[in-house]
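Got a spare moment? Tell me how you read both lines of this record:
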Amino acid sequence: AIAAFALVTLARTSAAEPAAVGSAKCKMCHKVEFASWEKTKHATTEPKAECETCHGNGADYLKMGPAKGKDPAKAKAAGLIAKPDKASCTAKCHKPAEFKDEMMAKVHEVKPKK
C-alpha cells in the first residue's frame, strides 16, 4: 500500500504544472518585451495578466539556463507557451464572444524575436 501511494504521489508530482517564478524573473532576459508589456492593458488590469498568465509558469523553463532559446521543443516541454493563441486567451481570461483577432496584436507593443 505504501509503495502504491508513493507511485501515485510521484505520478502527480511529475505531471504537475511547473511553478510560477513571477514577471521579475522573465524581465531579466526579456527586457524589451517586458517594457512593451508594461504599456498595455494587461499590465494595468487587476489582477494583472503577467508573463506566466499567457506564456506558462516558468520555473522549469528558467532552469534550462541560456540554452532554453536554442531548443523550442525542450522549452515547450518545460512549460513555455511561446506563442499563445486565441484559444488560450479565451480559456483563461477573455470571453470568446468578445474576443477579436486584432486583440492579439495589442499584447506586446514589441514582439519577441524569432
About this structure: The longest helix spans residues 2-15. Helices lie at 2-15, 23-29, 31-37, 41-44, 51-55, 59-63, 72-77, 86-92. The two ends are 50 Å apart (CA to CA).
